């Protein structure tokens, strides 16, 4: 697939020496300071003359004139909060199961785009090339100029049903996400955030008209762990509560990292919390494999995911899924009716091999309403693998 008409590429090489990498990171930062516009008024508060406070994520950075936020992509220029605009660092069509959303139009294609930067710095990030592009000289990324119309046209051409902001933290690029979602909604697409959940009341109000589906990574239930990753626990819990109250469709993922968040106590506290918000929120417990700076812990074993799922069930959660080890977690890739245990959606990895919900999204046997966003019928699945949209080209 070719880049959209008018798409421009940054010419960045793979694997240059460190000094060159640092210069390029500076160059990328320079380029990105051009690809901005003033942030949304709801996400910015000016005070003390030319200071601004950003409300796009839970850090709520106070930023002096000339300063940048923790995310490194929002900054204060002359008392105005400038925010990322007009590019993507990558885009492709994924099966929606990869996001993962398991209670949203199974088998649908989810057109996924990302920008650069993140408000956290998780050592095990699987999208570190884009999320840490402005922090880590080894994370060499590019930015392809696009506009909301062309990216939406491509999503429609590729048969996508959902437009997703992902790959970097979407909260910090919310204005651009909303610009794309406005077009996507005009074209009849659903819209989604795949996010760390480090939100604020202001950003959730800003997003509510434009975002239908929201996946949160609940990484831990220990504030000390969150501080190691550059965040705090409380804004994430508050965001999950608000998302549910505000009637976004919410699914939660916990990447189980051995020795980090796999203790009985921590898993129990996470599951109890989710169940207290709603026992109908799907909880995906997924397997860690070594990535980025966290390569020492062993990969998560299937038994650990099964144990986490048992804990979730005993906390009252009705829909628990195990991910990242296809075929090795028994029934935990499938959806079953929580009342009569009828098999509703059969999956292996991202592949849908059976779909038995009624047109209304009910169990065909006992009629229990299954929460989610369902199609009137299963439309089939063209692929269970990603395929490309706009390329991140490297030379
Ligand atoms: S998005 Fe978050 S990290 Fe970035 S400037 Fe705003 S509050 Fe700070």
Layout of strands and helices, then pairs:
Elements: H1 18-34, E1 36-38, E2 44-47, E3 51-54, E4 62-63, E5 75-77, E6 80-84, E7 87-88, E8 90-95, E9 109-114, H2 128-131, E10 144-145, H3 148-157, E11 162-165, H4 174-186, E12 190-195, H5 201-207, E13 213-217, H6 223-228, H7 233-245, E14 249-256, H8 264-277, E15 283-287, H9 302-315, E16 320-323, E17 335-336, E18 343-348, E19 351-355, E20 387-388
Parallel strand pairs: 9-11, 11-12, 12-13, 13-14, 14-15, 15-16
Antiparallel strand pairs: 1-6, 2-3, 3-4, 5-6, 7-10, 8-9, 8-20, 17-18, 18-19
Helix pairs in contact: 3-4, 8-9
Architecture overview:
- The protein is α/β, with parallel strands linked by helices.
- The protein has nine helices and 20 strands.
- It has helices at 18-34, 128-131, 148-157, 174-186, 201-207, 223-228, 233-245, 264-277, 302-315; strands at residues 36-38, 44-47, 51-54, 62-63, 75-77, 80-84, 87-88, 90-95, 109-114, 144-145, 162-165, 190-195, 213-217, 249-256, 283-287, 320-323, 335-336, 343-348, 351-355, 387-388.
- The strands form five sheets. Strands 16-15-14-13-12-11-9-8-20 form a nine-stranded mixed beta sheet. The chain has a three-stranded antiparallel beta sheet with strand order 1-6-5. It has a three-stranded antiparallel beta sheet with strand order 2-3-4, with no helix packed on it.
- Strand 14, helix 8 (264-277) and strand 15 form a beta-alpha-beta unit.
- Helix 3 packs across helix 4.
- The protein is globular.
């Amino acid at each position: 697939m070719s880049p959209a008409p008018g798409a421009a590429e940054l010419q960045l090489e793979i694997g240059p020496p460190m000094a060159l990498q640092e210069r390029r990171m500076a160059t990328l930062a320079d380029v990105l300071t051009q690809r901005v516009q003033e942030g949304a008024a709801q996400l910015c508060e000016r005070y003390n003359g030319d200071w601004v406070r950003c409300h796009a994520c839970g850090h709520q950075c106070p930023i002096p004139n000339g300063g940048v936020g923790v995310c490194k992509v929002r900054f204060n220029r002359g008392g105005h909060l400038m925010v990322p605009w007009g590019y993507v660092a990558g885009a492709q069509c994924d099966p929606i199961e990869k996001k993962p959303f398991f209670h949203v139009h199974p088998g649908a294609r989810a057109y996924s785009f990302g920008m650069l930067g993140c408000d956290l710095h998780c050592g095990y990030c699987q999208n570190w090339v884009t999320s840490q592009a402005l922090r880590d000289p080894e994370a060499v990324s590019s930015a392809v100029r696009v506009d909301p119309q062309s990216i939406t046209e491509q999503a429609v051409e590729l048969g996508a049903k959902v437009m997703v902001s992902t790959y970097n933290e979407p909260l910090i690029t919310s204005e651009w996400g909303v610009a794309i979602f406005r077009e996507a909604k005009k074209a009849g697409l659903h819209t989604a955030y795949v996010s760390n959940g480090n939100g604020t009341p202001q950003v959730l109000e800003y997003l509510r008209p434009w975002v239908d589906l929201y996946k949160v990574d609940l990484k831990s239930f220990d504030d000390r762990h969150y501080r190691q990753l550059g965040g705090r626990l409380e804004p994430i819990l508050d965001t999950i509560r608000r998302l549910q109250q505000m009637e976004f469709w919410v699914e939660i993922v916990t990447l189980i990292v051995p020795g980090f968040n796999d203790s009985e106590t921590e898993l129990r506290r996470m599951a109890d919390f989710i169940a207290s918000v709603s026992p109908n929120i799907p909880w995906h417990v997924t397997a860690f494999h070594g990535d980025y700076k966290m390569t020492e812990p062993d990969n998560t074993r299937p038994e650990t995911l099964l144990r986490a799922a048992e804990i979730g069930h005993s906390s009252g959660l009705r829909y628990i899924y195990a991910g990242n080890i296809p075929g090795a977690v028994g029934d935990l890739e499938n959806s079953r009716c929580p009342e009569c245990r009828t098999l509703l959606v059969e999956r292996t990895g991202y592949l849908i091999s059976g779909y038995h919900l009624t047109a209304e999204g009910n169990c065909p046997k006992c009629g229990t309403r299954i929460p989610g966003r369902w199609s009137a019928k299963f439309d089939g699945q063209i692929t269970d693998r990603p395929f490309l949209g706009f390329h991140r080209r490297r030379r």
